[in-house]
Write a structure and sequence with these properties.
Blueprint (H helix, E strand, L loop, with lengths): L14 H16 L1 H9 L7 H7 L1 E8 L5 E3 L16 E9 L8 E8 L5 E3 L16 E9 L8 E7 L6 E3 L17 E8 L2
Antiparallel strand pairs: 1-2, 1-3, 4-5, 4-6, 7-8, 7-9
Helix pairs in contact: 2-3
Bound molecules: zinc ion (ZN) (3 copies).
The site of one zinc ion has 7 residues, from loops.
């Protein structure tokens, strides 16, 4: 959807984020052989599944109050459009980042340092943040699989909100709370997020 140049920004690691990365590295080391085989097979083998084992970040969670996806790897839980911090429930999503974009995986999804939500950074403006004004990007360039079959380790129905640019779960009869007012809107791809 957009072609902005990726900017270099500090990931602002927190205590839980550091722990998550440490665990991620351990897991990646264990999968080293499989990853090496994938690499040897060439670019055609670089499927979203292979990529997610190479570079992904866990601790992304569903918020029961706004239905958004937010990073729970810090001691606090950001700013929720429904008030206070986000409240986590459900799966522990393990989101691929810094891997090539494909016809079924979209990059330019970023962490917002103000609300801790996941938002789309591919437009000139950056939507609406529950902490005020637009979202502010930092850290990894997340690459979200979309329009593929869900498995026992992934969940579909995650959508882009054209009002706030956030990613939220569209699988309930209502659509949570949008920082731009009322419920989230829905547009674009059907994202399928892997979880642990
Ligand atoms: Zn929330
Ligand atoms: Zn934000
Ligand atoms: Zn929204």
């Amino acid at each position: 959807m957009g072609f902005l140049t990726v900017r270099d920004e500090d990931p602002q690691p927190g205590r839980r984020a550091v722990l998550t990365r440490a665990l991620g590295l351990t897991a990646a080391a264990g999968l080293g052989a499989a990853a090496a085989i994938g690499a040897a097979a060439g670019p055609a083998a670089a499927t979203a599944k292979t990529a997610s084992t190479r570079a992904s970040q866990a601790d992304w969670r569903f918020c029961t109050k706004c239905y958004g996806l937010f990073f729970r790897g810090y001691p606090t839980d950001g700013a929720c459009p429904a008030g206070g911090g986000h409240d986590a429930a459900g799966y522990n999503f393990n989101v691929p980042h810094d891997v090539p974009e494909t016809p079924t995986a979209q990059h330019n999804w970023r962490f917002c340092t103000k609300c801790y939500g996941m938002f789309f950074w591919g437009y000139p403006d950056n939507g609406r943040c529950p902490a005020g004004n637009a979202h502010a990007a930092a850290g990894y360039d997340f690459v979200l699989p979309h329009d593929i079959a869900a498995t026992s380790k992934s969940q579909r129905n995650w959508r882009f909100c054209p009002k706030c640019y956030g990613l939220y779960f569209y699988g309930y009869p209502t659509n949570g709370r949008c920082p731009a007012g009322n419920a989230h809107g829905m547009a674009g791809y059907d994202f399928v997020l892997p979880f642990l």
